[in-house]
Amino acid sequence: MIIYFSATGNSLWVARELGARLSLPYFAIHDAKALSAYEIGTDEVCVLVMPVHAWGPALPMLRFIEQMDAGRFAGHPLYAVCTCGDDCGWTHCVLQKSLREKGLELRATFSVQMPNTYILLPGFDVDVSSAKREKLEAAPTRVRKIAEMIRKGADEMKTLYRPGTCATLKTSLIYPLFRKHIQGHTHFHATDACTSCGLCARICPTRNIRIKPKSLPTWGDACVQCHACIHRCPHRAIECGNITQKKGRYVNPYVYKSKG
Ligand SMILES: Cc1cc2nc3c(=O)[nH]c(=O)nc-3n(C[C@H](O)[C@H](O)[C@H](O)COP(=O)(O)O)c2cc1C
Questions:
Q1: pLDDT tens, residue by residue, 54-73
Q2: Are 138 and 208 within one domain?
Q3: Could you tell me if 29 and 120 lie in one domain?
Q4: Relative to the CA of 5, which ligand 1 atom is closest?
Q5: Closest residue by Cα to residue 250 from 231, 235, 228, 229
Q6: What one-character-per-residue DSSP string does 127-193 give?
Q7: How far apart are CA 102 and CA 104, in angstroms?
């Protein structure tokens, strides 16, 4: 089985492609009903798919691992596949540590470069269209290779995992800072373009957005900065302070309808 978290569709697309190649079903980490109803077959491979956030695993996936019923996965070959805009740092080590605490062992972690979604700091924006196109064109071959490795039962990942430069430093310094200080309270707000459709509240992985009929949504203190709300708003009606006004928006074009 494949279990994924995805804010803007990149990891969902990877989960879907891997599922097709490995003949495995894929489930969102939030679909508790489907996840618990599914019976994992004997020797069935389990793959966790998620975006890299600040050179570590996206927090919803870490929380999922902390709360998972490890017994269900014991004895199954376990893999992770990260999607990233550039590189992953030591995300694989963070995942391994957290799975070991549950008595599980990761066989290997792979990565797929996909269009970037991080837009909240100065200097960070979505990719220009040529870079976006190149990444989307290269991704199917990468996923095919990863599927082959998983099918062969590979337990090494040297060629298909991209740690990037200063990987240890990024994961050991920036990821803890991101988890401690950057998540939680954020400056997201809705503009006059908001139609109160409620999509942002429905897709927020931490149920951090409240919306009453005919009023603007409000954000609580449980934001994990996944960027689902800001990128997937169909009216481009969400901003974060002033910083995102001139930034682009992105959704995976094979999963969600792009706003251009
Ligand atoms: C909060 C946040 C932090 C990110 N940090 C990184 C990073 O450290 N390295 C990287 O290469 N990409 C980073 N990205 C880009 C995403 O990992 C990448 O675009 C991913 O494919 C998005 O997946 P999704 O569409 O499934 O949510 C970050 C994106 C967000 C929203």
A1: 999 999 999 999 999 999 99
A2: no
A3: yes
A4: 26
A5: 231
A6: PPHHHHHHHHHHHHHHHHHHHHHHHTT----GGG----TTHHHIIIIIHHHIIIIISBS--EEE-TT
A7: 6
Q: How many residues does the chain have?
A: 260
Residues 160 and 188 in one domain: no
Q: Are residues 165 and 197 in the same domain?
A: no
- Tell me how far the alpha carbon of residue 50 lies from the centroid of ligand 1, in angstroms: 9
Residue-wise pLDDT for 10-56, tens only, equals: 999 999 999 999 999 999 999 999 999 999 999 999 999 999 999 99
Residue 210: domain span: 184-240
pTM, full prediction: 0.97
Tokens of 29: 């980490």
The answer on 145 and 218 residing in a single domain is no
Give per-residue pLDDT as tens, 149-164.
999 999 887 789 999 9
Q: Which of 6, 61, 117 to mutate to test the pocket of ligand 1 (most atoms within 8 A of CB)?
A: 117
Do residues 41 and 78 both lie within one domain? yes
Residues 117 and 142 in one domain: yes
Are residues 170 and 53 both part of a single domain? yes
Per DSSP bridges, beta strands 238-240 and 78-84 are unpaired
> Residue 259: is its pLDDT beyond 60?
no
Pocket of ligand 1 (CB under 6 A): 6-11, 51-55, 83-87, 114-118, 225-227, 252
Looking up residue 98, the CATH number of its domain turns out to be 3.40.50.360
In a domain, 259, yes or no: no
Percent of the chain with pLDDT over 70: 99
Cα 51 to ligand 1 centre (Å)? 5
Tell me, yes or no, whether 246 lies in a domain. Answer: no
